[in-house]
Write a structure and sequence with these properties.
mainly alpha, Leucine-rich Repeat Variant
């Protein structure tokens, strides 16, 4: 009897095995192996993945490979993405491929799409790979193939978004061809996501395919293609965008064409922007001022009265941007203060562009000493994004700021500036 109790105790003390007949034991073993940097576990997980009959446990194995965050897992994940019959397992493979290259804080028990956990990479403003990271071509090719051939549109859309997160500009031609492929006419969500991703990748080579898409009958697709033309800087489409703004009956598309024109920095748009500066539509006034500001519009020096009379905060910010770009740095103060307002995102874009393109980086430094921690933190983030290494000495004091959020932004900026 005593021998039996000792034997039972020893059996229960054994580590859970990934080869166990018990699904719970297999799950426990997978969870134990899912440790950041545990490269040695990848072959064992890969072997288990091939013979695992339960799709939810296959998803856990795939999630474990993502948590390990080692490029040795890429071939396994790519193969699973191509061949697994379960849609959720394939979706989990995409999430894990991204985690290999984009570190995401992840602790506690493994969570998968089977647990109804939404991937962080499907959220707005999804994280993207750092510019210093070399992404394995096999990962991008696997995602591109999934975008083209998977039989589930949700997985295809997720693959397209993943290409954006990996900054896969080498896949622009493939994305453009798939955008125009006639067999995708009935897969509108995929086409809309492709149009959006082409804009995020910021490659002018996507311009011709996006311009041809402007003639499509799907208004949502056209709206995405319009904005993406502005983001990629395809100035050849400027006359067509101008015409669409003047004649298109869809209000959303009209607004998007003006957004795109404001992004293009094309002097051919000056007459249109000038005609809209006093328009009754707040958004038209805002975008026309923004578009002129990006062109260093000489007439912006005369906007002081217009600025004082304007009531709409977003339009005032655009006018302040124009005044600052035209050579009056005092208006940067208005934009810096707007970092602590509902228009903080808009102000951040303008301040970034002033620092990056308008030689106003030195003017931003003084706001690192603002009494407002939101301003200090926001300016630190902006300076980090501008990416001039000479800014390091300006940012360093904020790593000892009494406000924890300011310290976080300063540390993030230092990392970017030190690359």
């Amino acid at each position: 009897m005593k021998y039996f109790l000792v034997l039972t105790f020893l059996l229960f003390r054994q580590d859970p095995s990934i080869d166990s007949v018990s699904p719970k034991e297999r799950q426990a073993a997978i969870d134990k192996m899912a440790v950041l940097g545990n490269r040695e576990a990848i072959p064992q997980l890969a072997a288990a993945l091939k013979k695992e009959p339960k799709s939810d446990i296959r998803a856990e194995i795939v999630a474990a490979l993502g948590r390990i965050q080692d490029q040795a897992a890429v071939p396994v994940l790519a193969d699973t993405l191509r061949n697994d019959l379960d849609q959720k397992v394939r979706s989990q493979s995409i999430d894990s491929l991204l985690r290999v290259y984009i570190p995401i804080a992840d602790s506690g028990p493994l969570r998968t799409i089977f647990n109804r956990v939404k991937s962080v990479f499907l959220e707005p403003n999804a994280p993207v790979v750092g510019p210093e990271v070399q992404v394995d071509p096999a990962a991008k090719e696997a995602l591109a193939l999934t975008m083209q051939k998977d039989f589930d549109d949700q997985v295809r859309v997720q693959a397209v978004r993943a290409l954006a997160s990996l900054r896969a500009r080498d896949q622009v031609a493939t994305l453009g061809a798939e955008l125009e492929n006639p067999r995708n006419r009935e897969h509108r969500t995929v086409r809309v996501e492709i149009a959006r991703t082409l804009g995020l990748l910021r490659d002018p080579a996507a311009g011709p395919a996006l311009e041809r898409t402007l003639r499509d009958t799907d208004s949502q697709l056209v709206a995405e293609a319009v904005l993406s033309i502005g983001l990629v800087g395809y100035n050849e489409a400027r006359p067509l965008l101008d015409e669409m703004f003047r004649t298109h009956p869809n209000r959303l598309i009209k607004s998007r064409t003006l957004e795109a024109l404001a992004l293009l920095r094309d002097k051919g748009s000056v007459p249109l922007f000038e005609s809209l500066l006093a328009h009754k539509d707040d958004y038209y006034r805002e975008l026309s001022a923004e578009g002129l500001a990006r062109l260093n519009y000489a007439g912006a020096r005369e906007w002081e009265t217009r600025f004082e009379q304007e009531k709409k905060p977003s339009v005032k910010n655009a006018l302040a941007y124009g005044l600052a770009a035209a050579g009056d740095p005092d208006y940067i103060n208005n934009l810096a203060n707007a970092l602590d307002s509902r228009q903080s995102g808009q102000a951040e874009v303008y301040l970034y562009e002033l620092g990056k393109f308008d030689n106003q980086l030195n003017e931003l430094y003084r706001y690192l000493r603002s009494a407002n921690p939101r301003v200090r933190g926001g300016i630190a983030r902006i300076i980090g994004n501008v990416g001039d290494p000479s800014s390091i000495d300006q940012i360093r004091p904020l790593t000892e700021d009494p406000n924890v959020e300011v310290v976080r932004e300063a540390v993030g900026a230092m990392r970017k500036l030190s690359r």
